[in-house]
């Protein structure tokens, strides 16, 4: 008899073929790993016991029945860092460019200042600075980093900027590094992706960086958007740990492609590079990205409706209730959104973290 048992549910297989038993065991472990993505440690197994004998498990002596143990891994945040450009642009500064003023902006958004990259600065520079601070806090050497995830919608290189950051940090082992493009959801997706790499892939130290320079794509004559966005970078080091120390209990992720029309920065065609091609439409015109286009009212309504729902589901997946929340850290987009979400969840305002007054709408945090 050959068997694998997981608390609350068991799978048993009997076979003379070792290959068949091995394949069955792998399938069971894969199912257990999938369950670990959405359930907290106390609702899934913490260890899997395996035994094998031709005479059945009951007849094993203590010395013969020492099972091998596969311990479910957790993940925790062990370091964080941030970086912002030196240039501060106030509401009063913007009032000299567009028809607005400090009161109009602050009442509608809660924003008074934002940080903006100058011509000499680069997004990757901010990302590297934030990552270095996170590694320093965690007391982890760059050579011990297994994966670098850069969450950005404004890379310095269209082919991706994460490898540049990996090189700048001096990661001699050449760990995997790639970009995640998901706009305001970028950092959350990076955090969940890091947990999956740790729990399912055996990674130990994953660097998650959120960095954007949206000032490059802002129409500074458009009062509806130029008052909002700021540039910055933030980073956390996510580290493997025993299940008892796990720090990510549950999450809820969705995408709604129908909302594209309300917030986008689309590709636009420039003048053709060559005008005397022999084939119609070829060579193609050069491309670049347009300024940010946003329907503020629809974005506001969507966030106030969907964010509380998603939080409720994440709490349910984690086996927690609203009363368990000590601090509510939401995407820093608009103070009115933060207030509306907290009100719907019945969370006191003094438990809601907000720093957008001095940094503006930074997409990844």
Automatic annotation (TrEMBL):
InterPro entries: ACP_syn_III_C, ACP_syn_III_N, Thiolase-like. Pathway: Lipid metabolism; fatty acid biosynthesis. Keywords: Fatty acid biosynthesis, Fatty acid metabolism, Lipid biosynthesis, Lipid metabolism, Transferase. It comes from the Eukaryota. Residues 178-257 form the Beta-ketoacyl-[acyl-carrier-protein] synthase III N-terminal domain. One of its GO terms (biological process) is fatty acid biosynthetic process. PANTHER family: 3-OXOACYL-[ACYL-CARRIER-PROTEIN] SYNTHASE, BETA-KETOACYL-[ACYL-CARRIER-PROTEIN] SYNTHASE III, CHLOROPLASTIC. Belongs to the thiolase-like superfamily. FabH family. This is Beta-ketoacyl-[acyl-carrier-protein] synthase III N-terminal domain-containing protein.
């Amino acid at each position: 008899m050959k068997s694998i048992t997981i608390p609350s549910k068991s799978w048993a297989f009997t076979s003379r073929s070792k290959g068949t038993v091995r394949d069955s065991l792998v399938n069971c472990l894969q199912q257990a790993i999938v369950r670990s993505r959405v359930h907290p440690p106390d609702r899934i197994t913490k260890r899997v016991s395996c035994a094998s004998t031709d005479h059945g498990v009951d007849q094993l002596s203590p010395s013969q029945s020492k099972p091998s143990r596969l311990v479910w891994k957790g993940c925790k945040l062990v370091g964080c860092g941030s970086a912002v450009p030196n240039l501060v642009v106030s509401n009063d500064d913007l009032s000299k460019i567009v028809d607005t003023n400090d009161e109009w902006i602050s009442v509608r958004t809660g924003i008074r200042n934002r940080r903006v990259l100058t011509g000499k600065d680069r997004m990757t520079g901010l990302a590297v600075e934030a990552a270095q601070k996170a590694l320093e806090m965690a007391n982890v050497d760059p050579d011990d980093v297994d994966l670098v995830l850069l969450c950005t919608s404004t890379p310095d290189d269209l082919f991706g900027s994460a490898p540049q950051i990996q090189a700048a940090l001096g990661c001699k082992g050449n760990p995997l590094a790639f970009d995640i493009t998901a706009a305001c959801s970028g950092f959350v997706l990076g955090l969940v992706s890091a947990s999956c790499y740790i729990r399912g892939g055996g990674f130990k130290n994953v660097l998650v960086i959120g960095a954007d320079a949206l000032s490059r794509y802002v129409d500074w004559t458009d009062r509806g958007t130029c008052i909002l966005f700021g540039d910055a970078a933030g980073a956390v080091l996510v580290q493997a740990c025993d299940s008892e120390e796990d720090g990510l209990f549950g999450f809820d992720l969705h995408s709604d492609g129908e909302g594209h029309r309300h917030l986008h920065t689309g590709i636009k065609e420039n003048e053709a590079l060559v005008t005397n091609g022999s084939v119609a439409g070829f060579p193609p015109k050069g491309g670049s990205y347009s300024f940010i286009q946003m329907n503020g009212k629809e974005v506001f309504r969507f966030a106030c409706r969907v964010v509380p729902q998603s939080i409720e589901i994440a709490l349910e997946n984690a086996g927690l209730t609203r009363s368990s929340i000590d601090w509510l850290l939401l995407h820093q987009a608009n103070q009115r959104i933060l207030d509306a979400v907290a009100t719907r969840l019945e969370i006191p305002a003094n438990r809601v973290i907000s720093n957008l007054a001095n940094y503006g709408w930074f997409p990844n945090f």
